[in-house]
Write a structure and sequence with these properties.
115 residues
Length: 115
């Protein structure tokens, strides 16, 4: 069974940067389109960014120009470079298959941006 483990979150001041990573256990990682989602307190989980098997990228409007998604198929990882962070980016960040998150959700990684 596929397991997802997210890491790299933390506390950062507004304007700062963080780099999140997600490691996916199991075979055939390179065959999946992957995405990042986030869930802020009291809100529903929302889409942040996705990357296809061939490297095509899509972003939510709220993060476009600030976040960059990438993948390393040799390490079964998908990363999210987050720059110019804002307090409204505060959330737990999760990765999963895209567009349908069919893998069991991992524990996520907490990102907190202070103003």
């Amino acid at each position: 069974q596929v397991q997802l483990v997210e890491s790299g979150g933390g506390l950062v001041q507004a304007g700062g940067s963080l780099r999140l990573s997600c490691t996916c256990s199991g075979p055939a990682f390179s065959a999946y389109d992957m995405g990042w989602h986030r869930q802020a307190p009291g809100k529903e989980r929302e889409f942040v960014a996705a990357i296809t098997r061939s490297g095509g990228r899509t972003y939510a409007d709220s993060v476009k120009g600030r976040f960059t998604i990438s993948r390393d198929n040799s390490k079964n990882t998908v990363s999210l470079q987050m720059n110019s962070l804002k307090p409204e980016d505060t959330a737990i960040y999760y990765c999963n298959q895209h567009p349908y998150p069919t893998f069991p959700w991992g524990q996520g990684t907490q990102v907190t941006v202070s103003s």
